[in-house]
Amino acid sequence: MRKVFAVAALITSSQLMAQADTTGHTLNEVVVTANKYPNKTSLTGKVVTIISRQDIERAGGRDLSQLITEQGGIYINGANSNAAKDKSIYVRGGRVEHTLITIDGVPVYDASGIGSNFDIRQISIDQVERVEILKGSQSTLYGSDAIAGVINIITRKSGTKPFGGYGAFNYGSFNTLHANVGLNGKQKQFDYSIGYSYSNTDGISEAEQPTSATKTFDKDGLKQHAFQANLRIQANSILVVKPYVRYSKNKGGYDAGGFTDGENYFYTVENLQAGVRNELKLGASKLNVLYNYNKVDRGYQQPTTASSYKANEHYAEAFAVIPFNKLTLTSGIDFRSSNTDQISGSVWVPNLSSDSVHHNQLGAYASLNFNSGNGFNLEGGGRFNHHSEYGSHFAFNLNPSYLIHEQWKVFANLSSGYKTPGLYQLFSNYGNRYLDPENSITWEGGLQFFTKDEKANVRATYFNRTINDVINFGFNSATMQSQYINQDKQKDHGFELEAKWKIIEQLQAKVMYSYVDGEVHTKAATKDTTYFNLYRRPQSQLNISWGSQLTKALYISAQANAIGKNKDVTFPPPTYEQKELTLDNYLLINFYAEYALLKNRLKIFADLRNLGDVHYNEIYGYNAPGFNGYGGFRFNF
Fold first, then answer.
1. What is the Cα–Cα distance from 131 to 63, expressed in whole angstroms?
2. Is pLDDT at 368 greater than 80 in this prediction?
3. d(C-alpha 220, C-alpha 144), whole Å
4. pLDDT given at position 524
């Protein structure tokens, strides 16, 4: 790993140019995810990372998972593998189901999955205006799953003119074609944003082909259709109504396993989300009332079998933001109801019916934010959650910060989080209706420095997380059968270093380094066993980006992503016993360029990835592409 980091550092020192930081003065950047209302980052001690609209436009041929995995403290396994491969999100090394995905602040889940985590492949990058990543436990405001963090995906908004539009087209490696088109505008009391995107790629074989294979593995392609419509209606001077609908359909190929081809193995996933958000102004206060319907339909097709997994979820929330003097109160209630129907396609695995496989949750929360006006800020709150199966649970947070002379920010956070059992874990043939929620305690602290001209800032953060009652698949001595049980304790800790520097007006730099370590404490028979278990995510990673606005029309940038060694497990025949192995570290270097025409209404771009044609694996036995490139254009009118 030292060699990889050395190469990355050498590249930085010899070609130091940075990707444009469109966040401007980071100290006064306004975010909505940290407190559920617009607030300056200087007034909160929470650790927030922002992906701006310009960052998204300059993503070139990348998808949303590839853009997010380039941020500090986050690793998405599968992001740089085959496009059709599943994407596993690890925030600060936490398990996949410990990161909550929200869309415009609304939690989204897939109740048909074991861990209920939402599949980020269902969100086209063309539908996204901005991403706010909130690291650390956030269960007080957001409820279940927000143990490691929250990724809030903010969708495209309306334009400022009565009628406008945008579009893009790119083509590249693996016969990949991507196109999108949209309309937006604002007319008196009515705003709108409507968009459609299409992607199609032949891809590569998901599984890596061993030298002993007798024939070439087939390619596992991906096709996606995605549609989104956001409306905003100013009903009167105090009421705003925002209905929306989102739909996506993915069809992709997959393989039978590591080093194992799967001819005619296909999956389809359809996702429909529809709802409305109402905002009522009551003087300086605001009441938000929202509803979201989320439907997921997944199917898997093999030559001799087929399986189906369907889920329906209803989510409703009402919360008020009430400012008074130096205090702001955020308080609300939310309700979530989920069910699933599952056809396994196997005589050995019973089907599940939504008539009996369902649960609901009711939560009430409050958070009080104090801003002294002289730099000291304090947020504290709690949530009461009642689940239809296991009963009640409580979560809390306490988050002080102090901004000294507009240059130094000291912050700390002590919070609890929880993860409710999934429907499969509760009601399947391996289910256990007596499961408790996983619960966590996280504490973190750090220091952030801003130069007086705000052209540079550095943030250092340390975190420590303990999760109790971790749900594991094991043998239950009480029932004498294998099922899901609360058995383990997980302990993780790590640190993150992030730096941004606006060297000159046309030249900026960004460096992010993160490290995580963790171990599970589990009881096997009468013995307590402790071992490292952060599989399929690196302990350390370094991301460096640089670029320059060389002329008014020409912008270039480059990246060096150094990924440290990570451990994986395999179950080789004939014994099929678990075997631990280590995947090598690797360095990916990417280059991007764009040229603006017609007063920035048309931009042509090129996106070149893995310039060194490095061979690497994110998962043992699975493929990752070598050098690949894409070119295209985008426009607006």
1. 13
2. yes
3. 34
4. 64
Quickly tell me which residue has 């940038």 as its tokens: 557
Q: Distance of CA 423 to CAs 291, 295, 385, 440, 442, Å?
A: 22, 15, 17, 21, 26
Dihedral pair phi/psi, residue 145, rounded to 5°: 85, -15
Band (230; pLDDT cuts 50, 70, 90): very high
Residue 9 has pLDDT above 50, yes or no: no
Average pLDDT of the segment spanning 559-585 = 93
- Matching residue, tokens 């999108």: 180
**In angstroms, rounded to a whole number, what is the distance separating the alpha carbons of residues 569 and 258?**
11
Taking the model in full, what pTM does it have?
0.94
Q: What is the DSSP string of 541-560?
A: EEEEEEEEE-SSSEEEEEEE
**DSSP helix, strand, coil percent of the chain (3-state; round to 5):** 10, 60, 35
State how far the Cα of 217 lies from the Cα of 202, in Å rounded to an integer: 13
Q: How far apart are CA 113 and CA 431, in angstroms?
A: 13
**Residue 219, both tokens:** 């390619």
Cite the DSSP H helix spans in 117-174.
139-142
Q: How many Å apart are CA 430 and CA 236, to the nearest integer?
A: 53
Q: Tell me the C-alpha distance between 20 and 16, whole Å.
A: 13
Residue 81 phi/psi, 5° resolution? -90, -160
CB neighbour burial string for 23-44, b if at least 16 within 10 angstroms, e if fewer: bebbbebebebbbbbebbbbbb
Average pLDDT score over residue span 166-177: 98
Q: Which of 23, 74, 17 is nearest to 53 (CA)?
A: 23
Nearest residue to 45 (alpha-carbon basis) of 408, 321, 327, 456? 408
Are the beta carbons of 272 and 255 closer than 8 angstroms? no
How many other CB atoms sit within 10 Å of the CB of residue 278?
17
Cβ–Cβ under 8 Å, residues 384 and 392: yes
CB atoms within 10 A of CB 465: 26
Q: How confident is the model at residue 574 (pLDDT cuts 50, 70, 90)?
A: confident
Nearest to 82 by CA among 207, 178, 198: 207
Three-state secondary-structure class, residue 11: helix
Q: Is the separation of the CB atoms in 265 and 253 below 8 Å?
A: yes
Which 3 state secondary structure label does DSSP give 82?
A: coil
Name the nearest CA neighbour of 534 among 101, 98, 149.
Answer: 98
Residue 534 has, within 13 A of its CA and on its CB side, a CA count of 24
Residue-wise pLDDT for 455-476, tens only, equals 999 999 999 999 999 999 887 6
Average pLDDT, the chain: 93
Distances (CA, A) of 146 to 253, 328, 445, 486: 31, 22, 18, 19
352: which DSSP letter? B
165 contacts 181 by C-beta, under 8 angstroms: yes
- Could you say which DSSP state residue 71 is in? S
Which residues are registered as beta bridge partners of 195? 182, 228
Cβ 130 vs Cβ 594: under 8 Å = no
Cβ partners under 8 Å of residue 154, min gap 6: 32, 104, 128, 129, 130, 131, 132
